[in-house]
Specification:
This protein has about 700 residues and is an alpha+beta fold. About 25% of the residues lie in helices and about 25% in strands. The protein folds into three domains: about 30-45 and about 50-125 and about 180-270, Aldehyde Oxidoreductase, domain 4; about 155-180 and about 275-435 and about 555-695, Aldehyde oxidase/xanthine dehydrogenase, molybdopterin binding domain (Aldehyde Oxidoreductase, domain 4); about 440-545, Aldehyde Oxidoreductase, domain 4 (2-Layer Sandwich), CATH 3.30.365.
């Protein structure tokens, strides 16, 4: 595969939309100016499961400024079988906080006040929200396999015999909690019906997914639905699928045709309506010989899903890729509970699964009396451990060595006596990172050129705040072999050619490959049909994303190494992380400035995962009780004194014409494990359940 040469790529450019964003001139979905908007406020269930016996909307309807009240008694019938999206279709309640009604009014204040006046009578049923008891009682099932490259069940060799014969064995359970999405911009929608045409302004990662899902739900031709997403204020996976808030907004707009209905979820509502990362219970068993070389790996994960639909947090996904072993066993099971449906969250699977695996590897290093970096290097595979395919490139060993050099890693044979500095116990930890190189099908690109040498690139892609608009323009300029100033990139509108979602670190890889093909086709036509001169009326080409002939021949993954220094106060147990350092192998880096931002953002999110974040479920009522940013703690600037992200030079000709692997997901992977391993080095206490809080360090 020919890799395009770089002139614009590799430059650390500021985001093109940065100035407008900081001045408040970049309109997000909810801010798009519309004439005479109406406002929507939702009514949510107050039981975990049961049946609605009656709804009294009289007080709400009587309020001045109320335009309509929506319930299951008057809601339009939907054409979707998706349980999460089939709201207001019956009197059944599947989880606490589910939408059971809504009020449309002239102002947001009136709508919210009137929604509080809707009276709902329920007949509750006993509910089940306990993952631990479901596991203990065997109320589990194997989830549906999503991608052939990531099997949920693996049996290679004879794990039990290999474990029994191993010189060194590690076997422990590791737990991660329920994590909730909290992007700065909540999920928002403006919906407007004009005759049979529906216009939507949506905070989304996937314009075409919104259009197709809404069209199917409301029995429309997709051409009847136009979706805009000019700017998105963060997403982290929650805005890839369509959730019920969008369906509710479209329903409400049908009650006031010709008027635009604005709907923004509150922070409280974000904890039930937009998906979350499932808690996990993971068992890892490792066997090794006396030199620390793995002879067996067994990784099992238990997670939850809802009764409305299945989503599996594939916590075992990364394990088959990581280390050489002749015997490998993978298992995954889910429990269907009376709770909302989980969904995609940054590095789904890898972020929590690698906490368990990399914590276990650290425990193995201690048991073998080996330095944790050296243990990982000794178990580097020459090919993919599961299927034997060669890696298109594998930079883990280089990342470990370069990270150790930059961090000032001191090799050790085992956990030593804790170091003390001014009353603080000081320790260091390391963990590996990985994320697959994904190719998301379904993208097209249109490229137009005018006689003055100006190029316009159109795609229904989105920039979710990562700098995609800037980096993709850099790709386009190099693909077209012109200066940046000659290229205009237009995104965020389904009127443009379709594009795959921004997610899985695959946005620029998929879209960039498509633009490269378009640039080649445009040059070919100019040369073959117009004698090498741009015609007087310009020229336009539209192309599909190219196939990659190497996909079946190579295993394609990004890798990295995470290092952390931890300080634990000897008297109070207070935990601080003064230093994080990561080195990554992510292929070509298009824009060093935005790539670094993505990597340190992921590492900071990993710090938050390690020390702070946890949604606390009240089993009596089946809902998260710390459902705001005052009680659901995330890392702040004060928690992040120094975070460094670096990358190694890596050319991979098998990936795509741009040669990139993506950097959005991998930064979070391994960060929590590195911190947990550093805590153990500092204190001698092994914490196997996140978050790491001072109560878990009482033996210090």
């Amino acid at each position: 595969m020919s890799i395009i040469p770089a002139r614009a790529m590799g430059r650390p450019l500021d985001r093109f939309d940065g100035a407008d964003k900081v001045r408040g001139l970049a309109p997000y979905a909810y801010e798009h100016p519309v004439a005479r908007p109406a406002y929507l406020s939702a009514v949510r269930s107050t039981i975990a499961t049961g049946q609605i016996m009656g709804i009294d909307c009289s007080q709400a309807s009587a309020q001045p400024g109320v335009l309509g009240v929506l319930t299951h008694l008057n809601a339009p019938r939907l054409g979707t079988d998706d349980g999460e999206l089939r709201i207001l279709q019956s009197e059944e309640v599947a989880f606490r906080g589910q939408f059971v009604g809504a009020v449309i009014a002239e102002t947001s204040e009136i709508a919210r006040h009137a929604a509080g006046l809707v009276r709902v009578d329920y007949r509750p049923r006993p509910h089940d929200v306990d993952l631990e008891s479901s596991r203990e009682q065997g109320r589990l099932r194997v989830p549906q396999q999503i991608m052939p490259m990531f099997p949920v069940t693996v049996d290679k060799g004879d794990v039990e015999s290999a474990l029994a014969a191993a010189s060194v064995r590690v076997e422990h359970n590791y737990r991660t909690p329920w994590y909730n999405h909290n992007p700065i911009e909540p999920h928002t929608t403006i919906a407007c019906w004009n005759d049979d045409q529906l216009t939507l302004y949506v905070s989304t990662q996937y314009l075409m997914g919104v259009r197709s899902t809404v069209a199917a739900a409301f029995r429309l031709d997709p051409q009847q639905v136009r979706v805009y997403a000019p700017h998105v204020g963060g997403a982290f996976g929650s805005k890839v699928p369509v959730h019920s808030d969008l369906i509710l907004a479209v329903m409400a707009a049908q009650l006031v045709p010709g008027r635009s209905v604005r709907f923004a979820l509150t922070r409280h509502q974000m904890f039930t309506q937009t998906g979350y990362r499932s808690p996990t219970i993971q068992r890892v068993r490792l066997g090794a010989d006396a030199e620390g070389r793995l002879t067996a790996v067994d990784h099992e994960s238990f997670e939850q899903t809802s009764r409305l639909g299945e989503f599996a947090e594939h916590a075992t996904r990364a394990t088959p890729t990581m280390y050489a072993t002749p015997h490998l066993r993978i298992r995954q099971q889910v429990a269907a509970l009376d709770l909302p449906t989980p969904s995609i969250m940054r590095a789904p699977g890898e972020s929590v699964g690698m906490f368990a695996l990399e914590s276990a590897m650290d425990e193995l290093a201690v048991a073998c009396g080996l330095d944790p970096v050296e243990l990982r290097l000794r178990n580097e595979p020459v090919a993919h451990p599961l299927d034997g395919r060669p890696f298109s490139s594998r930079g883990l060993a280089a990342c470990l060595r370069e990270g150790a050099r930059r961090f000032g890693w001191q090799p050790r044979q085992a956990t030593t006596t804790p170091s003390r500095q001014d009353g603080w116990l000081v320790g260091t930890g390391v963990a590996a990172s990985t994320y697959p190189v994904l190719r998301l099908p379904g993208s097209k690109a249109t490229i137009r050129v005018t006689p003055d040498g100006r190029y316009t690139v159109l795609m229904a892609a989105v920039d979710i705040g990562t700098g995609t608009r800037t980096a993709l323009t850099q790709v386009a300029a190099d693909a077209l072999r012109v200066d940046l100033a000659q290229v205009e990139l237009r995104l965020g509108d389904t009127a443009y050619p379709p594009a795959a979602q921004e997610g899985g670190s695959a946005g620029i890889t998929s879209w960039g490959a498509t633009i490269c093909v378009g640039a080649d086709e445009l040059r070919r036509r100019i040369a073959a049909e117009h004698g090498g001169t741009i015609p007087a009326d310009g020229l336009e080409v539209t192309v599909d994303m190219p196939e990659n002939p190497h996909l079946e021949q190579y295993a394609m993954h990004a890798f990295g190494a995470q290092f952390a220094e931890v300080r634990v106060h000897g008297e109070t147990g207070e935990i601080r992380v003064p230093r994080q350092l990561g080195v990554f192998a992510v292929g070509r880096v298009v824009n060093p400035k935005t790539a670094r931002s993505q990597l340190i953002g992921g590492m900071t999110m990993g710090l938050s995962m390690a020390l702070h974040e946890a949604s606390l479920l009240d089993p009596r009522y089946g809902h998260v009780i710390n459902h705001d940013l005052a009680t659901y703690h995330v890392s702040s600037n004060a928690d992040v004194p120094a975070v460094q992200a670096h990358w190694i030079a890596e050319q991979d000709d098998q990936l795509n014409p741009v040669g990139i692997k993506g950097a959005g997901e991998i930064g979070i992977v391994g960060a929590a494990a590195a911190i947990a391993n550093a805590v153990h080095h500092a204190t001698g206490v092994r914490v196997r359940e996140l978050p790491i809080t001072l109560d878990k360090l009482l033996t210090v």
